[in-house]
Every structure is written in C-alpha cells, then in structure tokens.
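Sequence, please.
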C-alpha cells in the first residue's frame, strides 16, 4: 500500500480531563478490506475509533486518509466516513426506511429519486427489505446492528468504522452481520473494533491488538499464527487439580484445558497445540505485561 492511500495514523495520543491516558502513541496503517482492532476492556479502542471518526480531538499525532490531513481538514474524512458506534441513538417509533431516508437527506442526498434508490439498495444489502416498514422498536439486536450498517453506508463511504458490533448477538444474527460486513469490506476500508477474537479470525485480513493505549502486535493473521507454530502446547487437567502457569486456560467438560507457550513442557501430558488467534492475543497481552483473566 502506498503511504498516500488508506488510513495512516501516526503517534496518536489522547488524555482525558480525568488524567486517563487512553491513547499513548498509536501508529496504524489500514488499507482496503477489513482490519481488526482487538483489545481488552479499557484498552482504548473506543477512544481510537472516536478520534478517527473526528468526534474528539487527539492531543498529539496525525491522521491521514488517502494522503489528506484529517486533523487539519476533518470534512474530507467526514464526507467519506461511515461510523457505526457501540450504541445507536434510538428513534424507536420511526420505521427503518423513514429514518434512513431522513438520515440520507441530512447527508446531502436531496434528489428524491436517487435517495430512494440508494435506500432500497442499502436495505437490500443488509437484508432488511422485508422489515423496512417496521418501527425500530420492534427490531432484534441483530437487525438493529444491520440497520446501523445501512446508516453507516449512506453515501458509499471510503472508510467504515465499526465499534464492538456483535456483542450480545446470537450466532445466526452474528453470522448474518459478518456476511454484510464482508461485503462492505470488498468495496471500502473497514476498521472493526472488538474484544471478540473470533470476529477478527473470521473476517479480517489484518489485525492489531491494542492494550494500555498502545498497539502491542500487528500483522496478518496467517503470519502471526505461523510465527508461533511449534511453540504452543496443551493438556487436559481434571477438576480440582492444581494448574501450572498458563498462557490461558479453557474450560472443558472434565475440568480445564491448559495452553502454555515456549519450549516443550516437562510434563509429558502436554501435546502440540495448533496456534489460534486467541493464543496470539493472550501472548501479546502477556508479553506486554497486561493482566488478563485467562
Ligand atoms: N470520556 C472519557 N473521559 C474519561 N475517561 C475516559 C473517557 N472515555 C474513556 N475513558 C477511559 O479511557 C480508557 C480507555 O477507554 P475506551 O473506552 O477507549 O476503551 P475500550 O478499549 O473501548 O474499552 P471497552 O471495550 O470497555 O469499551 C479507559 O480507562 C476509560 O475509562
């Protein structure tokens, strides 16, 4: 990717009035496709998303979209941005079609015919044609998220920022939402912030882990996994047995499945464990000295 294309973030810092340093020098290069931003609660993901969406100013650093300085001229990005926040502001009594229509009008889609065509195409894209006449109050969590994506896509944005989209969705709704997002990523830059590792595993061609306001690992999932091949081990432990120091521990019907990192463990019960993105995530946090509840 040329330095002039995509989203380029350098040295971004943000300290809130209460003294919390939410971003402590974030560098990020995001090209077309879907980019995953992972991190535990409080890592700074929403702070980064809000700053990139120009909803708040950083204290230091730069943001460029396709070579244009966003902090000097935020309108360039705003005109090209679709933003799906954690919580959609609700207009419960309004139908999806009407709200989308008003929103598109506010975004400058003043030609009635073009606006209606765009809205119908968006409703189709997010699979809400059948329910478009219904009040938003009757929507499930998954439908609301898909509606949020339709809102974010008004005006065919170059950059789509999606903050924690799948929390609380059942597997079928999550799947549907993922398929919509994957379609969107075929045409624009999508930055997906989440603490659900599987979302990134399923969707993203590149990812970063943010912790304590800093990027602690970055790369393509396949490369990150390959780098840990042969260095992860797992063993079952019964309920009540004392557990060794672990990278992370997964519950199993018999007790626990313990995953450790490093040279072959002395305990012969351990066998090779094929690296998963979850392991990379825990490893990055451990190496950065972040306490995790594994
Ligand atoms: N408006 C604010 N004023 C003061 N502190 C804030 C504000 N917003 C966030 N913080 C603090 O900044 C840090 C980073 O928060 P942020 O919400 O960006 O993290 P996050 O990774 O999105 O976490 P979560 O997954 O829990 O939403 C936290 O310590 C949080 O308490």
């Amino acid at each position: 990717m040329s330095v002039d294309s995509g989203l380029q973030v350098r040295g971004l810092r943000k300290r809130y009035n209460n003294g919390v340093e939410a971003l402590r020098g974030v560098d990020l290069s995001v090209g077309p496709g879907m980019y995953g931003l992972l991190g535990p609660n409080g890592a700074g993901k929403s702070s980064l998303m809000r700053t990139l969406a120009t909803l708040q100013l950083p204290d230091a650093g730069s943001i460029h979209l396709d070579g244009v300085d966003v902090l000097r001229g935020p309108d360039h990005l705003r005109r090209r941005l679709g933003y799906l926040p954690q919580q959609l502001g609700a207009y419960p009594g309004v139908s999806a079609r009407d709200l989308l229509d008003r929103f598109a009008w506010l975004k400058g889609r003043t030609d009635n015919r073009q606006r209606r065509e765009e809205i119908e195409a968006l409703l189709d894209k997010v699979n809400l044609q059948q329910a478009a006449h219904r009040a938003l109050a009757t929507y499930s969590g998954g439908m609301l998220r898909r509606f949020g994506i339709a809102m974010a896509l008004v005006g065919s944005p170059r950059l789509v920022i999606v903050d924690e989209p799948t929390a609380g969705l059942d597997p079928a709704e999550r799947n549907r939402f993922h398929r919509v997002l994957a379609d969107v990523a075929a045409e624009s830059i999508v930055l997906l912030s989440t603490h659900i590792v599987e979302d990134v595993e399923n969707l993203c061609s590149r990812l970063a882990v943010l912790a304590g306001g800093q990027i602690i690992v970055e790369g393509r999932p396949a490369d990150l996994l390959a780098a840990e091949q042969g260095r992860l081990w797992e063993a079952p432990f019964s309920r009540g047995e004392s557990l060794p120091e672990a990278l992370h521990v997964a519950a199993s019907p018999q007790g626990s499945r313990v995953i450790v990192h490093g040279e072959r463990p002395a305990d012969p019960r351990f066998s090779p464990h094929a690296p998963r993105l979850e392991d990379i995530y825990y490893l990055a946090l451990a190496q950065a000295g972040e306490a995790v509840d594994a």
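The domain at 7-220 is CATH 3.40.50.300 (Rossmann fold).
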